[in-house]
Design a protein that fits this description.
Rossmann fold; 6-phosphogluconate dehydrogenase C-terminal fold; about 300 residues
Chain lengths: ~300, ~300
């Protein structure tokens, strides 16, 4: 199956209908990719509202029932709950189902699921690199995945047919696929996502409340993601402690270099330090994909 | 003269027609606040283009000529050049002119100008807290100042009539006015602007170039201002070394608290650390002014 070919999906079950899960539902429904989208969650009232707003077709708080006839199960719960939800989903879903997730960390999750033979034969770890500082299906968008990278983290034990199905599934939502091993994923994302989040929070609380009226656009943009849910981010940080501590060490070195240049009032060193950062930022911009038009 | 009343301006001279100076020109012209806007700069070709595009009415590379019949002179050059440009402007402008600036730092500038009797009698330090990571009049916007705070930094020696005129001038461009002493301004801005800029640069260069394709929105927003001109920011940092080093110290304490919570895997401490940041960020959002409709 080619990367661009779409699987005809009968029923897709989404476990955890928040920002990510809700956006999976909207993307599937707006692109007509599934005959039925079942949302599984813990808050039945929120699920019914999501159903009424067209995010999902059916809603249930019973995971076993929800995944019972699913061809694909996407687990979009917080990283601290993914292992148990994937285990339950792989046990309850049809034998030929694909189970994938959307967790921001991968090594611990994949290691624990590899120890479970049913999960190991069914599950393909995934991380669509997208999101928002907002939580909840109310903020979900069908276009959330468009042109975004989705990292798949299969292991040597993951059946290649499942990997191909996972590629097709996330591609059908608009993602570009990269494959990495779970540890490599976590090392990279510690720098590209978890460090920027931790730093946004450090910056947010560094400015005394009384001075916030004088905060410039650099504070506004630099702290945007600090508005995100503390429980979600505590779980992500804890699931990636080693790599994130290493990334913080790198940042501390960059700050120390700036401090030294400032303390010695070394104009050239300050200039070069900034110019190197500017160059890195321009590389980032140059690597952004051009937007795909609406399908 | 009340804060909201506008001075009828004959000629306004803008020294330094870049992003800020160009936006002053566009704001004056679009609001019909001056009979003539003279742009003074060093690059005559860029000045002529700015004139042709309606950013200014007249252009000259001769500061003495440019400010010769100005009622208001706004010095919008980099902070390292403001003192000399204000000195020359106050010497060459009509005796009853107002000279103000738009520099991001204030203590050194005001201290040096206070030592010059002509400048001390004419100049009112100003810092409109707005801008962009982009430089040049090509990115100027008439609305750049709308609803933004402009800090005025008069001293006991500044004539109160000049302060009133500066309030009226910056208010007429759309700003909300705050008065602070120059040192207090620099201490606050070290936290609310200079630290966020330095941190954006530190973050930008912390992520290895090969991993930028996996950078999340937190990197994109957290590093936006690292695209700014290195010469401008080197000058701002150097003009505010003490306060900025203190602000960096505060940030380092916040990062150290996070590191300790991570190293000890203290879930509650990580959660509280993030939640405090989230609360600070929500205070910032609550204090943003609601937008004023177009005049």
């Amino acid at each position: 199956m080619g990367e661009r070919s779409l699987e005809r999906l009968d029923t897709v079950a989404i476990v955890g209908v928040g920002l990510i899960g809700g956006s999976v539902g909207l993307a599937l429904r707006s692109r007509g990719l599934a005959t039925k989208v079942v949302g599984v969650g813990r808050d039945s009232r929120a699920l019914q509202q999501a159903r009424q707003r067209g995010v999902i077709d059916e809603a249930t708080t019973d995971l076993v029932e929800g995944v019972g006839d699913a061809r694909v199960v996407v687990v979009c719960t917080p990283v601290s709950r993914i292992v148990q939800d994937v285990r339950r989903a792989t046990a309850a879903a049809p034998k030929d189902a694909l189970v994938t997730d959307a967790g921001s960390t991968k090594r611990q999750i994949v290691e624990q699921l590899e120890a479970d033979p049913t999960a190991a034969a069914t599950f393909v770890g995934a991380h669509p690199i997208t999101g928002s500082e907002r939580s909840g299906w109310e903020h979900a968008r069908a276009a959330l995945f468009r042109d975004r990278v989705c990292v798949l983290t299969p292991t040597p034990r993951t059946p290649s047919a499942q990997v191909a199905r996972a590629r097709a599934f996330w591609t059908s939502l608009g993602c570009r696929i990269l494959e990495m091993n779970p540890s490599e994923h976590d090392e990279v994302l510690a720098y590209t996502s978890h460090l920027p989040h931790a730093l946004a929070a450090a910056l947010a609380s560094s400015v005394p409340a009384a001075w916030l009226a004088l905060a410039a656009g650099a504070y506004r943009d630099g702290t945007r993601v600090a508005a995100a849910d503390p429980g979600l981010w505590t779980a992500i940080f804890r699931a990636n402690r080693g790599p994130l501590l290493k990334a913080i060490g790198t940042l501390e070195e960059r700050v120390a270099a700036f401090k030294y240049a400032m303390m010695t009032d070394d104009e050239d060193a300050i200039y070069r330090w900034w110019d190197e950062a500017r160059h890195r930022r321009s590389l980032y911009e140059a690597r952004q994909p051009t937007a795909t038009p609406d399908p």
